[in-house]
Please model this.
Amino acid sequence: MRRELGDLLAHNMAAGRMVFVPYLPLGADFFETEYRYPRYVAPDLLGPQYVASEYFRSIPYPLLLGALSAARSHFSGVTVFYDKTLPRPAIRRTILESFKRCYPEYGVWRGRFIDAYQVSAAGLAAARCYSGVEITPESPPSDQEIGGNAPVRFTWRAFRGAQTAFRLQVERHDDRVVWVEAEDFSQENGWAAQGHEATGFSGRGYLTDLTKSNSITARRQVEIPGSGRYEIWVRSLRRRDDGSPVFLSGPGFRAEVAHAEPTSLNQWRWESLGWHELAGGAKEFAFTRRFDQGFPWQIFIDAVVVSDRRDFDPSRERDWGIVLDTGDVTSPERKYQLLRRLQPGRYRWRVRTFEGDRLVDWDGSLGVTSEDSYFRIAR
Ligand SMILES: [Ca+2]
Model:
């Protein structure tokens, strides 16, 4: 495979094409581990004055479509290498299909391990779609407090392209719900944040134990809104009944979590640890695990929730709840005026903009979503 990569690089760079070798970060991907290789091949090919970055880019898949849109015209075209020895994950195939739709004039050379997709400079200029656009929320300014009676006016901008439609969403924070991602706990003596073995988590991933020591602890200060009775919830995934219990402790309580239940192994499960009297302010919560016997399997812990709401169920709702979803609105204007009043509280919003079927996101889906922007409505 290394030899095929070398031959393909030599051929395409000598033809004056910019070569993109996309990889999935942390994907144990051949293209990621071999990213230095062209630096050794290239000087032999093109002479010692050759600058690797001018002809070759080893690039994460999420940046590929944007980089192609920005590819410079002084090349005679581009070539994208596709490692076909890796069937999964499907996102690589999804991005490749989007590439084919955007650049219908592509040609392909099929190797034993690698397919090389080539697009000429004319083919690049005739692209059916483009990517790499950032949508920036502009108003209300980030973290601004708005008077309770003032109308809220949303505006956003993009540094290039046009807009044919948008979809705006506004969420309000429920201050009676404290939602903490378990992967944001400290990682001491063997706990670690992970995200590649299980899917279907919230946040960046989950907390897992890598070391089988009875002293492993993961801690985190959790801000309790005020003194009172709170229900505590934990979301976890246990794979085996291995006799190695996990505990969550906090001010005045200690409870076993993620205990083995034959019907719920290998799936994410929310469990309530019951109601506890908690004082307001920052309080330390800690996960520990005891390894008594046998062959323990890693436990996965996704999130911890503390709430004083009797009717709160974390499997159905979150600490943020949708208060406005415009659906797709056909409009070239990058603004939206909210006519109804919002209750006092903390809000966040985002907008997805579309330009027919031309503007695509990093994964090739239509449209691009802005980052979240936050504001407050005063009492
Ligand atoms: Ca999580």
